[in-house]
């Protein structure tokens, strides 16, 4: 089935098309969400939400971008919304959060071991994820989409609804910030 | 011992060649179940009733708002009429008029 046929079948609410969509995209969606949330259970729940949203909003898909880009966009938006909500809840619950202190540490678990990282890199990847979590939201998203999903600058630009040059700048600032943070980490 | 620059570079490259993590193979079944549960929460008859209920609610609120303002307007008119007639009665009782200047 071609992408166009799949989209048409989805728009006609065909169950087999939805099943095919989930089968084709589940790993990409889950992997993207896992990188952003760094929590397997939340990532699985959110992956379900993403596909339900895709199913409900497929009639809005105009084919201006690839279907995969549109799905990535929904996955990223849902993940960032989830993190913002989680952050607001935690901030509301702690005096520390009231003063905005430790806000970033509360967003993600203390240490995240990505299951797809090579064994010899696990320790360093955990340090990198900790540093990535300190980045501003758009830098963090662009960096993770490039590193984990291997998306091109143009694809990231479509997902983040920005220009390719803006993504280039985001990635370069992300790398500079990470280098600075990691240098401080290893010198301390 | 490695120098710091080398450690930083290695850390930055630690995600290179990362393997895509596979999602739960039963993801579709779970989504299907969730969609089914959601549809069952509202039976088709109940779903048909929703627009009717929405219109009824809007009408109920509008009627309340209209009657509130009507009652308020009548109240203030009655109060001002009452207070005017009270003043007149007092003026008559004590022979007060604009002419006497009292």
What is the compact description of this entry?
The complex is a heterodimer of chains A (188) and B (102). With 188 residues, chain A is mostly helical.
Task: Describe the protein's architecture and organization.
The complex is a heterodimer of chains A (188) and B (102). Chain A has 188 residues and is an all-alpha fold. Chain A has ten helices and no strands. In chain A, helix 1 crosses helix 2 (15-37) and helix 2 packs across helix 4 (67-93). The model of chain A has no long low-confidence stretch (mean pLDDT 90). With 102 residues, chain B is mainly alpha-helical. Chain B is 73% helix and 0% strand. Chain B is elongated. The mean pLDDT of chain B is 82. Classes of the chains: A mainly alpha (188), B mainly alpha (102). The A-B interface holds A 19, 22-23, 26-31, 34, 44, 47-48, 51-52, 55, 114-118, 121, 124-125, 127-128, 131, 147-149, 175, 178-179, 182-183, 186-187 and B 4-5, 7-8, 10-12, 14-24, 27-28, 30-31, 34-35.
């Amino acid at each position: 089935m071609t992408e166009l046929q799949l989209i048409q079948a989805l728009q006609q609410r065909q169950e087999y098309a939805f099943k095919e969509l989930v089968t084709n995209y589940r790993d990409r969606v889950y992997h993207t969400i896992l990188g952003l949330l760094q929590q397997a259970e939340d990532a699985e729940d959110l992956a379900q939400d993403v596909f339900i949203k895709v199913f409900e909003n497929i009639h809005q898909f105009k084919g201006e971008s690839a279907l995969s880009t549109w799905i990535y966009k929904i996955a990223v938006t849902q993940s960032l919304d989830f993190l913002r909500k989680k952050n607001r809840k935690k901030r509301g619950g702690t005096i520390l959060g009231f003063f905005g202190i430790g806000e970033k540490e509360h967003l993600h678990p203390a240490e995240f071991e990505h299951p797809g990282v090579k064994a010899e890199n696990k320790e360093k990847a955990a340090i990198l994820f900790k540093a990535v979590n300190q980045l501003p939201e758009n830098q963090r998203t662009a960096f993770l989409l490039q590193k984990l999903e291997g998306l091109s600058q143009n694809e990231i630009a479509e997902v983040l609804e920005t220009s390719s040059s803006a993504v280039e700048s985001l990635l370069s600032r992300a790398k500079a910030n990470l280098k600075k943070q990691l240098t401080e980490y290893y010198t301390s | 011992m490695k120098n710091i620059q080398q450690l930083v570079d290695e850390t930055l490259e630690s995600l290179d060649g990362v393997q895509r993590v596979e999602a739960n193979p039963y993801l579709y079944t779970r989504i299907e179940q969730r969609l089914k549960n959601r549809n069952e929460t509202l039976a088709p008859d109940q779903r048909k009733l929703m627009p009717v209920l929405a219109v009824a609610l809007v009408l109920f609120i509008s009627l309340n708002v209209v009657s509130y303002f009507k009652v308020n307007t009548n109240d203030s008119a009655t109060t001002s009429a009452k207070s005017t007639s009270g003043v007149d009665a007092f003026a008559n009782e004590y022979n007060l008029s604009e002419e006497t200047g009292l």
